[in-house]
Amino acid sequence: MMDQNHHSDKTEEAQPSEKKTTRNCCNGFKMFLAALSLSFISKALGAVIMKSSITQIERRFDISSSTVGLIDGSFEIGNLLVIVFVSYFGAKLHRPKLIGIGCIIMGTGSILTALPHFFMGYYRYSKDTTFNPSENSTSNLPTCSINQNLLPNRTSLEVVGKGLEKDSGSYMWIYVLMGNMLRGIGETPIGPLGISYIDDFAEEGHSSLYLGNLLAVTMIGPIIGFILVSQFSKMYVDIGYVDLSTIRITPKDSRWVGAWWLGFLAAGLIAIISSIPFFFLPKTLNKPNKEKKASASSVSLPMKNEEKSQMASLTKTGQNVTDTVTGFLQSLKSILTNPLYVLTLFLTLLQASSHIGSITYVFKYVEQQYGNSASETSILLGFISIPSLAAGMFTGGFIVKKFKFTLVGIAKFSLCAHMTSFLFHLINFALICENKSVAGLTLTYDGNTPVASHVNVPLSYCNSDCNCDPTQWEPLCGSNGITYMSPCLAGCTSSSGSKKSIVFHNCSCVEENGFQSKNNSMKLGECPKSDDCKRKFYIYIVVQILTLFSAALGSTSNIMLIFKNVEPELKSLAMGFHSLTIRTLGGIPAPIYFGALIDRACMKWSINNYGKQGSCRLYNSLLYGHTFFGLTTGLKFPALVLFVVLIFAMKKKYQGKDIKASENETKAVNEANSGPLINDAKVDHETHI
User: Cα separation of 58 and 62, whole Å?
Assistant: First the structure.
């Protein structure tokens, strides 16, 4: 009797202990989920800030678009450096601490990206302006004077569409590249290790719910990122260091650089803060009671048997390694000889390359094509892209799950979605604006005659005796709607006012146009875009919403096609190899070759302090638009052709088979919806824009 009472007392004591353990397990898991959510937010925040700041970085460091593309691609390079280590050793090490270390590295990379700002000195938007807050910054602007001579140290190396030089003069941008590479290294363990940890310790059947919530919470990062970039872009780059009343350029000027570095500092600090909870989490959480009971017998085994098994495993280590390598090579051969997988791999690579290149330079395109400031562009693209992508992905996943398409049906649905997106995309060609009227680039200097080429346009009699520096870019807008490259080249002989309100008078090149008003006074700043271009901009916004929504419709289906066309045991390898291919052949080269071709559309380059080509001041709008959309179209169209080939190949293979998206397909949809989180390349670019 006493034994029974004693046993019941132990049972009663054990029950609260088990409840306490379960409660601690739940609390630990909730803490991990909250910390991982914050790290995903900071990850997406840093990515959006980098993409949105591309134009600002290009101007600040006086570099070309192709160099900026290399900086952008360095993120993928950093990721590839450690992805094998993380994939193989990550699950065997302390995953929360590894994620925490990754967050610290990611934050350090963002801060390193911002550091050059503090070592480069004040930003000089004009080489004729030696910045001194105590002096009038407009006093050094040269006007037309027949008696003035060019200073002997002036360079006449005006690079106008020719002689593209790779040396940017200043190599401080390498720190930005290294910072972005560090950010790529730090982000690598967050996605795969975080998701695997959730899958291991979440309640059975709840993993998809947690991953869906994680994806939804992640969208906070891009929203915050676009808002921050929009606000920081309005601030002058040297805010807090200079007297802003002496700055004569505005945010819509092609030389304006906002406080880009503040965004990276903010992203870095948030990333480092998000790392703190991970260092207080256990390597493993307590398993559910059923699993404990199942493992109780193994704990009670004699220690001798355990030691014997360890010794046996050590003797077989060499053989296991050989078998593992052989098995890996056979598995890799199996997926690479699978024509359906290879077709899907190539078409998604083409789509991803188009998507990555478009995201990288869409900010610059909107600024240059429609004359918007960086602040306006950032908030606008963020406002239209995030809801469009989220709605498209949700709708696409819902349609596939609702109608239970066959595997061939899923491919057809994805083809229809991407075909619709492609047709909307073609409308962009009709929305390209005409070139601005710029004396010396699209017109003769007197503004009367169009020129066949913007290279080496000869001086007119209105400015031939002015001894102007042809490298100067100080644009003015005439009453005739023509932009002139500098007061001297416009033939202006005098000025009045100061700072932003300076007015130039007696501009002979404006007077030569024969206007009856003879109003030959000019103010600083380029002439605004035409009303027709503004109307095209509003249509462009609508087209972008439709294009993004329809493209996102097929994103879930694309992910399903990757792993549903291979053997179930090869699914992880298929997804991993797909991610590796997209990063290597898409994420790294796409920004570089997009940038190199966009550089060819430049009509006016800046000249840096070393007399070398800097960043582009003015693009040929027609050539830029046709190059930008021509590249994306050239990548999208072959992908559609491969889609058609894939569907025919799938029909041939699955003919007569009833492959319904029942339970397996429903599971596939859930995996696909969390796929962008696992496939870091996909999430990195889809959450940016």
Answer: 6
pLDDT at 17 over 70: no
Q: What is the mean pLDDT of the chain?
A: 78
Q: Tell me the C-alpha distance between 161 and 620, whole Å.
A: 10
For tokens 């593209």, the residue is 164
Could you tell me which residues come within 8 angstroms of residue 272 by beta carbon, excluding any fewer than 6 positions away?
103, 104, 107, 108
Domains for the chain: give ranges and CATH numbers: 26-131+170-286 (1.20.1250.20), 437-528 (no CATH)
As a whole number of angstroms, the distance between CA 617 and CA 687 comes to 29
Using alpha carbons only, what angle is made at residue 399 by residues 395 and 400, rounded to the nearest 5 degrees? 120
CA nearest to 676, candidates 562, 549, 544: 562
Q: What are phi and psi of 30, to 5 degrees?
A: -65, -40
604's enclosing H/E stretch is: strand 602-607
Tokens 């409308």 appear where? 427
Q: What is the pLDDT of residues 507-539, one digit of tens each?
A: 888 754 455 345 577 888 888 888 899 999 999
Assess contact for 478 and 465: CB atoms under 8 A. no
Nearest to 122 by CA among 241, 268, 285: 241
| Contact by Cβ (8 Å): 369, 73 | no
Q: Is 312 exposed, middle or buried (0-12, 13-18, 19+ CB in 10 A)?
A: exposed
DSSP state of 688: T
Ramachandran bin of 311, using left for φ above 0, alpha for ψ from -120 to 50, beta for the remaining angles: alpha
Asked if 89 and 201 touch (Cβ cutoff 8 Å), the reply is no
Residue found under tokens 């600002």: 56
How many C-beta atoms surround the C-beta of residue 227 within 10 A?
15
Cβ-based neighbours of 542, under 8 Å, separated by 6 or more = none
- 383 vs 392: CA distance, rounded Å: 15
Extended strands (E) in 189-280: none
Instruction: Write the pLDDT tens digit of every residue in 26-50.
Output: 577 888 889 999 999 999 999 999 9
User: What letter would DSSP give residue 443?
Assistant: B
Give the CA radius of gyration of the chain.
Answer: 30
* Residues 88, 96: Cα–Cα separation, whole Å: 16
pTM over 0.90, yes/no: no
- Phi/psi-derived region of residue 447, left when phi > 0, alpha when psi is between -120 and 50, beta in every other case: left
For residue 533, give both structure tokens.
């271009």
Report residue 655 CA to chain centroid gap: 41
* Concatenated DSSP letters of 39-97: HHHHHHHHHHHHHHTHHHHHHHTT--HHHHHHHHHHHHHHHHHHHHHHHHHGGGS-HHH
Residues whose CB is less than 8 angstroms from the CB of residue 124 and which lie 6 or more positions away in sequence, other chains included: 130, 131, 609
Distance from C-alpha of 418 to C-alpha of 639, rounded to nearest angstrom = 9
Structure tokens at 334: 């199996």
Express each pLDDT in 544-576 by its tens digit.
Answer: 999 999 998 888 777 778 877 888 777 777 877
Q: Cα(251)–Cα(526) distance, rounded to whole angstroms?
A: 12
Distance between CA atoms of residues 108 and 433, nearest Å: 41
Q: Which structure tokens are listed for 641? A: 């052709």
Cβ-count burial 483-493 (b if 16+ within 10 Å, e if not): bbbbbbbbbbb
Residue 472 DSSP code: -
What 3 state SS string does 488-545 have? Answer: CCCCCCEEECCHHHCEEECCHHHHCCCCCCCCCCEEECCCCCCHHHHHHHHHHHHHHH
Other Cβ atoms less than 10 A from the Cβ of 34: the count is 13
**Enclosing H/E stretch for 45:** helix 2-52
Q: What whole-number distance in Å separates Cα of residue 207 and Cα of residue 213?
A: 10
